[in-house]
Design goal:
This protein has 161 residues and is mainly alpha-helical. Helix content is 49%, strand content 9%. It is built from seven helices and four strands. The strands form two sheets. It has a two-stranded parallel sheet with strand order 1-2. Strands 3-4 form a two-stranded antiparallel ribbon. Strand 1, helix 1 and strand 2 form a beta-alpha-beta unit. 19% of the residues are buried.
């Protein structure tokens, strides 16, 4: 196997384990990176910092990087257009600038929240037979269940590399 990089997502979940389980997992990460001679990349939310900092040797090997929040710009518009196109709706969804700004405001510019919102809007469009995401749907959209009831974070989400 010619493995060059080992990527682990949601590393913050290791905090759910006992102290001993956390230590074992962090030791295993170091062992894998050493044994496979592979770069280690871990991703997670801000709590991931706490998880990785639990092992000084591992923490020294990783640099902290933060994913920036989306802003009201052309790149955000392209992201929304790309996501909507990937939803394979039968009709074109031509959203206005006001709708794009609403999406940005509701999601706080957090990528995963943007994906959740667009996916939910697409599902609603299919279920209602509209087959497109409308400005009205964007303005009326509300998170449906508790895991979508978010507040805007004060700092960006962490990415380690």
């Amino acid at each position: 196997m010619d493995l060059k990089m080992l990527m682990i997502d949601e590393v913050h979940n290791l905090l759910a384990g006992s102290y001993r389980e956390q230590r074992r997992f962090l030791n295993m990460l170091r062992f894998l990176a050493n044994d496979l001679c592979a770069s280690l990349v871990v991703f997670g939310v801000n709590e991931a910092l706490e998880a990785v900092r639990g092992d000084d040797q591992l923490a020294r090997r990783l640099d902290e990087h933060y994913l920036p929040l989306w802003e009201d710009d052309v790149e955000f518009s392209r992201l929304i257009q790309t996501l909507i196109a990937a939803m394979a709706l039968e009709q074109r969804s031509g959203l206005t600038v006001a709708s794009l700004r609403t999406i940005l405001k509701v999601t706080g510019g957090v990528t995963s929240r943007v994906f959740i919102m667009i996916k939910s809007l697409a599902i609603d469009a299919i279920e209602t037979g509209e087959e497109r995401i409308t400005d009205e749907a964007v303005q009326a959209w509300q998170p449906v269940w508790a895991k979508h009831a978010w507040s805007i974070p004060r700092q960006p989400i962490a990415e380690f590399g």
